[in-house]
Every structure is written in structure tokens, then in C-alpha cells.
Amino acid sequence: MNPRAWKGEIPVQFLYTAGVAGERFFTRLRDQGKLFGTRCPQCKTIYLPPRIYCERCFSGLEDWVEVKGRGKVFSYTVLHRDRKGQPLGKPIIVAMVSFDGVKGSLIHIVAGIEPKKMKIGMEVEAIFKDPAERRGSILDIKEFRAVSKG
Amino acid sequence: MPDVAIIGAGTTRFMRRSLETGKELSYEAAKMALDSAGLTLKDIQAVCMGTAPDAFDGLHMKGEYLLDGAGGFGKPYMRGYVGGGTGVFAPIQGWYHVASGLFDICLVVCEEKMSSCQPHPQGAFLTIFDHTTERPLGPNLLWIFALEMNRYMTTYGIQKKDIALVSVKNKKNAMDNPIAQLPMEITVDDVLKSEVLAWPVQRLDVSPTSDGAAAIVLASEKVARKLTNKPVWIQGVGWSLDTSYWTDKDLCYPRYVEKAARMAYGMAGVKEPKKEINVVEPYDPFDYKELHHLEGLLLCDKGDAPRITADGVTQRNGNMPACPSGGLLGCGNPIAASGLMKISEIFYQLRGEAGKRQVPGKPLRGLAQAWGDLMQVGTVVVMGVDKPRAKGKKAR
Amino acid sequence: MELKGKPLTDEEFRKGKVITVPWNPKAMYEWDTGTAMGRYLDGMKQGKIIGVQCHKCRRIMVPPRDFCELCFRNVDEYTEIKDTGSVNTFSICNVSWDMKRISSPLIPAVIELDGASEGMGIMHLLGEVDPKSVTRGMKVKAVWKPAQEREGAITDIRYFKPL
User: Fold this and answer.
1) pLDDT tens for residues A101-130?
2) How large is the ipTM?
3) Contacts of C120 in chain B (CB under 8 A)
4) Interface probe, candidates A24, A58, A103, chain B, greatest B C-beta count within 10 A
5) Are C99 and B198 inside 8 Å of each other by CB?
């Protein structure tokens, strides 16, 4: 008897909505080039990306506040291979960026810096794409760059 | 074992495609249920989430993804999944959280966002067929319903026009349900003239895919009595699964629904279901399934469900109102949320709060049932205005 | 009570009037057939339908399996099942899985095979038959692909046709 395997696939494609909060967040990011979070009055914290409810106290969140694009590197990693395991031409730095008053952090690419110069706690700022290039996606932030001193 | 009551409920609209993410849908339903019970998230001690395949929403670990919207942050939280039976299984899971004495207040949330799955959720459903012996034949989900419907019809000599009455009834009942997706007044003729998809299944025999969420709050007796003067008691629960070798069974009768029903009736002390169940929400993803399930639930004799439907027994003002909510045919079928919607409907009916959908005569006891997988699972909950009667509450 | 939920039209959703993110994963699989299914497929290649028997409950089962799910013990022997049977139930399908009309209808059926226990069936397609004349209980026989085209798959049987 020949042991064998049967090949097949699951034919699915997905189209995700951004949600009520996401729709507003990404629309403003696209149209205004600004980041917004929602503030929980009870927990006194801001969520970025914003949500319509606070997961901790379950309050409905209606207070939208602008979050300036300057933050600190909470943690980072340096990628040397792509998703399929192939080597990258140039390493990519992915960081968690934390902002004042905001719970948690945002994940994005950090560019324009040598990996060995990365430091936890260093200041970085969001670089937005030109209005004509923005689509209402997290990639409307092109990348984060180190804040130059002096 | 403490007695368990439902003290609050909430349901979002059922929609073909919603702006809300699955998290937001879960939140809206959970918040409604909490508000209706006069509780806040702090009062909830455990959360049970029911949601069907990750592949519909396109989110791996979907239970964990939905957690914060379902109020599970930092709490004992678990997601259960048993196909289409999930919506009535999740409250059973919630029931044993409280009946075990481990928790006093448990929130149960069910959610589905099928619109994310393109081009049609059937792509994900296809995997229910065996990859080696069935998928190479190019099946689609309609086949199994059509094969089951045909077997049921030819076993008892039932005609399409008898079955179409269910679709007419439920879509009309849905016109009084504000959350309904496809309420409409149609005739038997409309059903018989609708597009033949996989004979004998026609377009108006099928419930629509949907996005939506539902939630209920369960409480132990000592807590329920403080919070409401109209608790709806869970008198019996039952669930049973059959083999996945679906071609080895006689598809004309859902024996696994009978097993689940007997378990629930045993716990509830129900000896004559036809007389003692006053209102019922059987699972109706297709019109013939309501008939199939009424028989499996022992609420009528085998092969007799079409006759009692034609006689008006299952209308809202009949002796055994079935799907007063409008069911899945009228409201839509966001898989797990639809089962919990049926539980909520019985909750409202027993409290006299179903508004235009209220069945007359002060019903004392009701039943909600769901079904799913590859013709495999029956999940049943019996609810009543009185506390469970049976002294020995073990399932027989 | 306020209704919750913001329905979207098909146009808003698909034509990008609201912010959406597409994702097309390639979920590809290679499933091991297992010992029992492996023998079933080998049988197919040879133009035979293979089943198994459990001596405890005496059922003769097809497709074959390694263990009897009722008795929860290993099956006792492999045996050949006939390639004739009767139609337990059938459907006439006019749409594909993504709900588009197909040019000629497919007739899926559950066929109770002769030589297996009563009620033991497999799903397959019917062919060389007018859909209107298919009846429950109709006797059918497998139409096999020629030996050199068979590859060890359920599709080595093209369809079942009326006897």
C-alpha cells in the first residue's frame, strides 16, 4: 500500500471593514494627516487606535482627541528575513511606539536609522505621506523617524 | 446546584453587511444586555463567547479577538463552538458556570460577521466536506440541505407547498421584529416560483447570511431575586452530537435533536412536551428544518409537522407558536448570534415583553433549539417562569 | 429601545466607499489520507470499492475507517463492496458554491452500496440520466474511468448511472 497525502485548498478571500471607530480614524488620517484617539472619562486614558468602548470599564467612548505624532520607542525588533523566510536586501526595523497619555502603543516601521543606533526610549515622530498618496490606511503614515536633536 | 435565571438580553440589528467590526458588534449587544439587567461590567464574573468558524470573519483565534468587545478583559473567558448549534450551546456553557456554584453572574455573548468572507461565506463552509472522498466532486453546502430535504419529503410524502408555509409564516412574523434583516409578506406561490438552487431547495427556502450579535445575562437565584421580579429560569439543558459519517444516517429524522431534547426535558421534569411547551423557537436556517426539528423535539409526531403547520398550530395565536421572532428565515442568520437571539425571544415571550410579537395566553414554558455541523448537533434549552421542578436535576 | 448596527449597501462595502482592507490568504493543505483511506484510494485505482467490517457490531462500513466509531475498537477486516447500489436521496443543483448558475445541472446523491450494511452510503454524482426521472430507491451502477486514467481518487468513478 502506498501511503499518500491529498492536496487541496480553502478558497477564501476577505474584505474587512474598519468599524465605526476605524472608519473615523482612517478617514481623518487620510483627509487631515492627523492621528486621533478616544478618551475614556472613567479610566482617564486615551486609546490609539481609537475604539468606541473602553475594554476595562465598558463605557461608551465619544471623546475624540488629537494625538501628536511624536512618541517614544517602547520596544523594537530588526527583521532580516521576509514572511517566506527569504533574506531581505536591507534589514527592516519594526517598533512599538508609545505616546503621552495613551494606553499601549502603535506598531510601525522605523526608517532612516542604523539598527545598531536604535535605543529603547528614544524619541521618534510619524512621517505622513503627501495628501494625494493617502488612502485611509495605517500606511498613510509612511514611517517613523528619529527626532533629530539640535 | 443553584437555580439559574436569565435576567437581561440584548441583540443588534441583523444586517447583510455591517460597518461595525466583530468587536463593536459584540460590545453593542453586551452593553444592551448589561443595561437591561441594570448591571455594569464590574458585576460580571465570567464571560462565555459563542462564535462559529474563524474563517467567516477571517480572524484566527476569533474568540480571543472578540474578547474585549464581549466584556472578557481580565475575566475567566472561554469561547465555545459547535457549528450552528453554538448560539444555544453558549448559554448552556454559561448555565453550568453558574449552576456549578463557581460564579453568580455570567455574561453570554454570541457574534458573527460573515460579510468579511468573499466572494461568499460558502467558500469557508466547503471545508465541511471530507477533503478526499467528497470535495473532489465539487460540492457546495446547498447539496447537504437539498439531500436531507429530499429524503424528508420522500419519506413522508411531503410536498414543497407544505414546506413553503414555514417560510411564509416566519418572514411575516419578522415584520414585527425591529432587528430583522429580511422581513416580508410573501405567498406560498412566491416560494414555489423562486429560483431553484439545488432542487428541492429554492431561493426563498433559505435564510440570508448575516452580521450581528446577541447577549444575555445569567444569574444565580440569590442574585436574580435582587435584580428583577421577572427572572426567566433555565429549567433544562441538553446537547448531543452524532457521527460525522453523515451518509451512514437516515437523514429524514434528526435523532441527535431528540437526544438533546430528552436530556433537557428530563432535567426540566417535562413529561409531555406537546402539552407542556407553550412556545418554541426551533432552528430554521431552511424552512424544512423547522418541521424537521419540531419532530425531533417531540413536539409533534414524525412526519406530522407539515400538517400542524397547515392547520395553523404554529402561528403566533396557535397552540404551539413556532418562531414568533421571525426566525432565521425572517431575521437573518449570523450563525451563533441567531441561536442566542432565539433564546432572547423566549425570554421576552415568557416575560410578556415581546410587544407586537407577543403570543397570547401568558406562556409559562418555552424552548429554544439550535442545530449545526454536518447534520450533527442538537442543542436545547428549556426555560420557564417557574423554577425548575424536577428534584433530581441530573440529566437522564 | 435604540437599534444598534449600521448596515452598509453592497456598493458602499465593495466599491470602497467605506474604508476596507482586502486580504487573500492562500490556505493550501496536504492531508495525510490515513491507513484506511489510503486503502480506499488504492482500491479506487484498481476499480474496486473497499470497505471494512467490525466483528463486534457486525457492520460493514464504507468508506473504510481504522476503528469502529460505535464500538470504539479497531476494525477487523477489509472487504470488497459491490459497485452497485440504490439512491437513498438526491438533489438537482443549478448553482456553484459561489452562487453562480452552472450551464448543466449536477445531480449529487447519497448511494447505499450493495454489500455494505443497510443505510451505509457514500456521496457521489449521478450521470447518464434525465434529472426528472431520478427517484429514491433507483438502482444504479458505478461508471469507472478506464484503468490508465485512474489515479486513486473518488473521481476514478465518473458517476453512477441507472441499471
Assistant:
1) 998 899 999 999 999 999 999 999 999 999
2) 0.90
3) 247-248
4) A58
5) no
CATH number of domain containing B333: 3.40.47.10
The residue type found at C135 is T
> Which of A14, A52, A58 lies closest to B118 in CB terms?
A14
The pLDDT of residue C97: 84
* A-C Cβ pairs (cutoff 8 Å, strict): 74
Number of domains in chain B: 1
Nearest to B136 by CA among C113, C64, C44: C44
Q: Write out the three cell numbers for B57.
A: 470573519
Kindly list the residues from chain A whose CB atom is less than 8 angstroms away from the CB atom of residue C41: 4
Residue B393, pLDDT above cutoff 80: no
In a domain, B343, yes or no: yes
> Which CATH architecture best describes the domain A19-146?
Beta Barrel (2.40)
Domain of residue B334 covers 4-118+208-384
| pTM over cut 0.80 | yes
User: Quick check: is B147 in a domain?
Assistant: no
Higher-pLDDT residue of B249 and B205 is: B205
Task: Tell me how close the Cα of B54 comes to any Cα of chain A, in angstroms.
Answer: 12
Residue C57 CA: distances (Å) to CA of A15, A67, C50, C114, C147: 49, 70, 19, 18, 35
Please state, in angstroms and rounded to a whole number, the distance separating the CA atoms of residues B188 and B163: 9
**Taking a C-beta distance cutoff of 8 angstroms, is the pair B216, B351 a contact?**
no
C contact test, residue of A1, A2, A4 with most C CBs within 10 A: A4
Would residue B174 count as lying in a domain?
no
Render pLDDT for B73-112 as a digit per residue (tens, 0 to 9). 999 999 999 999 999 999 999 999 999 999 999 999 999 9
Question: Looking at the complex, does the CB of residue B60 fall below 8 Å from at least one CB of chain A?
Answer: no
Q: Quickly count: other Cβ atoms within 10 Å of residue C105's Cβ.
A: 15
